[in-house]
Design brief:
Chain A has two domains: 2-64; 83-162, no CATH class. Chain A is 69% helix and 0% strand. Chain A contains six helices and no strands. Chain A has helices at 2-26, 42-64, 83-103, 105-119, 125-147, 158-162. In chain A, helix 4 (105-119) crosses helix 5. The longest helix of chain A has 25 residues, at 2-26. By secondary structure, chain B is mostly helical. Chain B has one domain. In chain B, 73% of the residues lie in helices and 1% in strands. Chain B has 21 helices and two strands. Chain B has a two-stranded antiparallel ribbon. The longest helix of chain B is centred in the first third of the chain and has 35 residues, at 106-140. The chains are: A mainly alpha, B mainly alpha.
C-alpha cells in the first residue's frame, strides 16, 4: 500500500505546482485595454486556484484519509506489475516519432505495431513487422489515392507501390 | 408539429437508402468495437471525426448514434464470454453473465442481454422522442447564467458519480479543464498557455486527447499490468435460446433496467456505468433467490444490460436539447457538432429538424438491426474475440497514431499523444476516472464563454448566478450533489474503519 500512498502525495504535489505555474503564467496573458470586464485571465486563474486546492486536498487525503477506494472496483487481487512490457509498449509510439519522417510511414507503422504486439506477448517479431508493413502500405494507398492526403513516403517499401 | 408528425418526418430522412446504409455501418461497427476490448465508442467516434468531415452531418450522426447503441449491445458479449467488459457499461454483466457461460448457459445470457438491450433501446428512444421537444421548451428559458449553472451541475455529477471518490473525480475534471485552456481565447483571440508553440494555438484537439487517453493510455496501462492481460474465452454452449423460465425471469428486469437507465443517462449523471450497478442491486434485492446472484442469475444480466442501453438513449436528451454531454462519448459527439458548425440546443430542433428527427428515427431502425445482428448472428461476432491480443492492441495503436498524425502530419501532435498517453496510463494505475477529463476538456471552454457572457450582460454583477431562479436552483443541486457524495463516502469509510 505504501507505494500507492506515496504516489498520491506526488499527484497532489504535482497539482499544486501546475496550479501555481498556471496562476503565474496567467499574469502574462495579454489583456487588451478594450476589455472592460472579465478578460482572458480570470478563468485560468480560477482553474489555477482550484488545482492548488485540489492538490492540497489530495495530499491531505493521502496522508490522513482512509485507504478506502484506493483500488479500482471489482479488483480484489493485488496488481501484478510488468514494467518491461510497459517500456516495450511505450517504445512503439516513440519509435514512430523518431522514424516516420525519414524511414517513411510504412516502416514507422510496422515498428509501432511490432513493439505494441511484443508488449502484449507476441514472440514473432518478423511476422509482426511484416503485418505492420502491410497495414502501413494499405493505409498509404487508402490515404493517398482515396482521400488525397499525403503521408511521408519512405524509399524502400513505398517504391513498390509506385512500382 | 406533434410527435407522430416529427417521427414521420424523421423516418422519411432515415429511410433513404444512403442513410439506411450509414445506420447499418454504424451499428455493425458499434457491435464490433463493443465486443473488442480496448476500443470503445468514444475512441471510435474520435478517430472517425476527421474522416467524416466531408460527410453530410445527418449521415454522420446517424452513423455515430448507431455506433453508440451498437457498442452497448456488443460489450455484453465480451462480458459474458471472457469476463472482461467490452465497455465499462457492461462491468456488472461480467458477474453473473460469465458464471452463466461457465455453467453452459452462455446462449441464454447472450439472448437475454440482446433482447433486453432491444427493449431498452426501443423504450428509451421513444422516451427521447417524446421528452426532447418538452425539454427544448425548458431550454429556451435558459440564459447564459443558467447555462453556466447547468454546466456546473454536469461537472458536479461527473465528478461525484464516476470513479472511487469525489476528490479524484474533481481532479480528473480539472485536468481536462486545464488542457482545455490551451489555445486561443475564443472571446478575445488572445493565445493562452501555448508556450510559443505554433501548433498549440488551435488547442489540444479533442481527437488527440481522447485517442491519447483511451487508446495509448489504455494500451500502456494493460502492458504494465500482467494480471489484466490473462483471459479465457468460454465457448458458447447450451440451447440457442431462452427457456420459458428465462423469459419469465427476464422481462421485469428489462423494464426496471430501462426505467433506471434512462433517467440516469438523461440527468447529467455521467453515462452508462452507474445505472447498471443500481439495476444490479435492485434486481438482487427483489429476487426470489438472491443467493443465485454471483452464481449466474439471469436477472443480473437482463437488468443491467437493459439499463446501459436505456442510459445511452437518455444521454442523447441533454446532448441534443442543451448541448450538454454527460458521458465521454457524448462529449466527443458534441465535438462532432462543433466540427460541422452546429450548436446542439433548442435551436437545433428548429434549424436542423431533419437531422434531429432523422437521428431519432434511425436509432429506432438501428435498434431493430442490432437485435438481428446480436441474436441470430452472435456466433459470427464471437470470432472477433479470437483475434490475438498482441495484434488487436498493435492494430489499435496504429489506428490511434493514424488518427492523430494523419490529419496534420505534425510531430508535435505525436509528442503530445505520447505525453497524454502516459498521463492516461498513470491515471488508470492510480484509479482516477478518465471520462471527467473528456467532459472537462469539452465543457471547460464552453462554460467560460457562458460565464463571461452572463457577467457581461449583468455588467459585472456576479450575483446574477444566485438571483436568477433557474441558475440558483441548479447551483444548489450541484452543491448538494457534491456534499451528498462526500458525506456518503465519509460514512462508508467510517463504517469500514469501525467494522
Amino acid at each position: 500500500m505504501t507505494g500507492r500512498f506515496n504516489a498520491h502525495v506526488l499527484v497532489g504535489l504535482a497539482l499544486v505546482l501546475i496550479g501555481a505555474g498556471l496562476f503565474v503564467s496567467a499574469q502574462d496573458i495579454h489583456v487588451s485595454p478594450a476589455v472592460v470586464l472579465l478578460g482572458p485571465r480570470l478563468f485560468p486563474m480560477i482553474v489555477a486556484i482550484a488545482l492548488v486546492v485540489l492538490g492540497g486536498l489530495t495530499i491531505l487525503a493521502a496522508l490522513f484519509g482512509s485507504r478506502e477506494g484506493t483500488t479500482a472496483e471489482g479488483e480484489p487481487h493485488a496488481p501484478e506489475n510488468d514494467w518491461p512490457s510497459f517500456l516495450t509498449a511505450l517504445s512503439g509510439p516513440v519509435l514512430f516519432l523518431i522514424t516516420v519522417e525519414f524511414l517513411g510511414f510504412a516502416v514507422a507503422t510496422a515498428l509501432l505495431f511490432a513493439a505494441v504486439a511484443r508488449a502484449f506477448g507476441s514472440r514473432r517479431p518478423v511476422l509482426d513487422l511484416g503485418i505492420g508493413i502491410l497495414i502501413g502500405l494499405i493505409i498509404l494507398v487508402v490515404f493517398s489515392y482515396g482521400l488525397g492526403l499525403m503521408l511521408p513516403m519512405g524509399s524502400v517499401f513505398e517504391s513498390l507501390l509506385v512500382g | 408539429m406533434d410527435i407522430f408528425g416529427n417521427l414521420a418526418h424523421g423516418f422519411a430522412v432515415a429511410l433513404t437508402p444512403l442513410n439506411l446504409m450509414w445506420s447499418l455501418v454504424g451499428v455493425t461497427l458499434g457491435t464490433a468495437i463493443g465486443i473488442l476490448p480496448g476500443i470503445g465508442p468514444a475512441l471510435t467516434i474520435a478517430l472517425l471525426l476527421p474522416v467524416t468531415y466531408k460527410l453530410d452531418p445527418t449521415a454522420a450522426f446517424i452513423m455515430f448514434g448507431g455506433l453508440y447503441y451498437g457498442a452497448m449491445y456488443g460489450s455484453s458479449t465480451t462480458a459474458i464470454l471472457i469476463n472482461t467488459p467490452g465497455e465499462t457499461g457492461s462491468l456488472v454483466t461480467t458477474i453473473d453473465g460469465n458464471k452463466m457461460a461457465r455453467k453452459g448457459r452462455g446462449a441464454a445470457a447472450l439472448a437475454t442481454s440482446a433482447i433486453g438491450s432491444f427493449v431498452a433501446g426501443l423504450i428509451g428512444t421513444l422516451l427521447l422522442a417524446v421528452l426532447a421537444p418538452e425539454v427544448v421548451k425548458l431550454a429556451l428559458l435558459f440564459g447564459p447564467a443558467d447555462y453556466f449553472a447547468l454546466m456546473i451541475v454536469a461537472f458536479a455529477a461527473v465528478s461525484a458519480l464516476l470513479g472511487s471518490s469525489v476528490l479524484r473525480g474533481l481532479v480528473s475534471l480539472f485536468i481536462g479543464i486545464t488542457i482545455g485552456l490551451v489555445g486561443i481565447d475564443q472571446q478575445t483571440g488572445q493565445s493562452r498557455f501555448t508556450f510559443g508553440i505554433l501548433e498549440l494555438l488551435d488547442g489540444l484537439g479533442v481527437v488527440l486527447v481522447a485517442v491519447a487517453l483511451f487508446a495509448v493510455g489504455e494500451a500502456l496501462y494493460l502492458a504494465s499490468r500482467a494480471d489484466l492481460r490473462r483471459e479465457e474465452i468460454v465457448p458458447v454452449r447450451g440451447r440457442a435460446f431462452m427457456t420459458r423460465e428465462d423469459w419469465a425471469r427476464s422481462w421485469k428486469p428489462w423494464l426496471r433496467g430501462t426505467l433506471i437507465g434512462f433517467p440516469f443517462g438523461a440527468l447529467p449523471a455521467g453515462g452508462a456505468e452507474l445505472p447498471t450497478f443500481l439495476s444490479y442491486k435492485v434486481e438482487k434485492s427483489l429476487a426470489k433467490k438472491p443467493e443465485e446472484f454471483g452464481e449466474g442469475a439471469i436477472e443480473g444480466v437482463a437488468g443491467p444490460e437493459a439499463a446501459n442501453n436505456a442510459a445511452v438513449a437518455g444521454v442523447l436528451v441533454p446532448l441534443l436539447t442543451f448541448g450538454l454531454p454527460t458521458s465521454s462519448t457524448a462529449a466527443i459527439m458534441l465535438a462532432a457538432f462543433q466540427q460541422y458548425g452546429l450548436q446542439p440546443g433548442p435551436l437545433l430542433f428548429s434549424s436542423n429538424s431533419a437531422l434531429v428527427w432523422g437521428l431519432i428515427a434511425s436509432l429506432l431502425i438501428g435498434n431493430a438491426m442490432l437485435l438481428v445482428l446480436n441474436l441470430p448472428l452472435v456466433g459470427l461476432w464471437v470470432r472477433l474475440l479470437y483475434i490475438p491480443k498482441p495484434w488487436l492492441y498493435g492494430g489499435i495503436s496504429v489506428f490511434a497514431m493514424l488518427g492523430v498524425y494523419g490529419i496534420n502530419r505534425s510531430l508535435v501532435d505525436v509528442i503530445a499523444l505520447i505525453a497524454l498517453g502516459l498521463l492516461g496510463c498513470m491515471m488508470r494505475r492510480l484509479d482516477y476516472p478518465i471520462a471527467p477529463v473528456i467532459v472537462g476538456l469539452i465543457l471547460g471552454p464552453l462554460s467560460e464563454i457562458q460565464f463571461r457572457r452572463a457577467v457581461q450582460i449583468s455588467q459585472g454583477d456576479l450575483s446574477v448566478f444566485f438571483t436568477r431562479p433557474i441558475s440558483a436552483g441548479l447551483l444548489t443541486i450541484a452543491a448538494l450533489m457534491l456534499i451528498g457524495a462526500v458525506a456518503a463516502h465519509w460514512r462508508r469509510s467510517r463504517k469500514a474503519a469501525f467494522a
